[in-house]
Amino acid sequence: MREMLTPTSLITGAGLDKEVALITDGRFSGATRGASIGHVSPEAAARGPIAAVKEGDIISIDIPNYKLNVEISDKEISDRLERVAKFQPRIKTGYLSRYIDNVPRPAPGGVLRVERADMKKTGAR
Length: 125
Known about the structure:
This protein is of the alpha+beta class. The protein has four helices and four strands; from the N terminus they run H-E-E-E-E-H-H-H. The chain has a two-stranded parallel ribbon with strand order 1-2. The chain starts with a helix and ends with a helix.
């Protein structure tokens, strides 16, 4: 989950913070300005519906009901997702690889849970 201060700063710097919303599976710091919706889940890498969104699609934002809706049909979403390649992490070894394999999406907490046997196998403390 990348920090989104740079993209929101660019949007604000271009004077678009009243017209553009940033929707991401990333995270925000306290310095973010403008309409910013983060921790959207399921993430695009998990081939969730957000992976089907293309430039020019209309997304309705219902803040009171915590909902985002892309204004395309379920069939179009399904067709687009069939063309999305399976996510292949660039990192294949080490602790970041363990993180990728074992930490759930951010919505339930994004916490690495390991068993004692797993810790002994890797030498983690």
